[in-house]
């Protein structure tokens, strides 16, 4: 009987030691990362979807603050940013903004723009990222899916944002360069509208993705071509037209904006009162533009 008790004690002690060793091992082990999903991915627009406002404007404002060009060179970009915030993305504004951006970076080095993108991310863009959208991207990554940004923003800046957010990569507008210096011309087309859908289809073919298993996120009806090529389209902070389409088609809608203000735009009446109102409005707009350019983040 004594021998039996001794053996039972030894077995119990051995089991206890094994359990403690297992627990210690589990506590120090790295969390398990899901195996990559070979066919599913997520595609995110940037402006007003991942980042509040226009990333290209933040870049231009950063260049202005560093005295890379004069105030009047960026004034039109300020009006475009104001219009973007009030009315949403506009195809004409995107093309015009890209042309202005190409003119401003012509003759500058790729390394300089990339370094500037890093600085602008830290100064402005980091705090402009919508927390809700960031969590959506992280959820896809946690599920083992790849996540790309797809944006009209210059590819170098888009890649900085993607890297800082821990994403897979970015598709952006590509500016031509020679010997590491921008020429002021594009390679291909501005990545906007139908061009985004074409770029995603090409990526899916290269990566072996099943677009029916993929998701896409955007705030703008201009991205309907992109949203329509995936199996799970999601409207994020949608403009009026995209919200209507999403409701009609039964798409998911997520809105992370809080306390949105509705801008009321009036036409001043003729006469002395109208002229005074018009002058006051013009002065207020100019002051607002200067504040956008010079306010520190």
Architecture overview:
This protein is α/β, with parallel strands linked by helices and 297 residues long. It has 11 helices and 7 strands. Strands 4-3-2-1-5-6-7 form a 7-stranded mixed beta sheet. The longest helix is centred in the N-terminal third of the chain and has 27 residues, at 2-28. It is globular. The termini are far apart. The relative contact order is 0.13. The model is unreliable at 1-8, 18-33, 75-88 and 260-286 (pLDDT under 50).
Summary, kept brief:
With 297 residues, this protein is α/β, with parallel strands linked by helices. The chain contains eleven helices and seven strands.
Q: Work out the radius of gyration.
A: 26 Å
Number of H- or I-type helical stretches: 11
Strand order of the largest sheet: 4-3-2-1-5-6-7
Mean pLDDT equals 74
Count of beta strands:
7
Main beta sheet strand tally, sense and closure? 7 strands, mixed
- Fraction of residues in helices? 40-55%
Question: What low-confidence regions span 5 or more consecutive residues with pLDDT below 50?
Answer: 1-8, 18-33, 75-88, 260-286
What string, H for helix and E for strand, traces the elements in order? HEHHHHHEHEEHEHEHEH
* Estimated structural class: alpha/beta
Tell me what portion of residues adopts beta-strand conformation: 5-15%
Distance between the termini: 79 Å
The coarse overall form would be globular
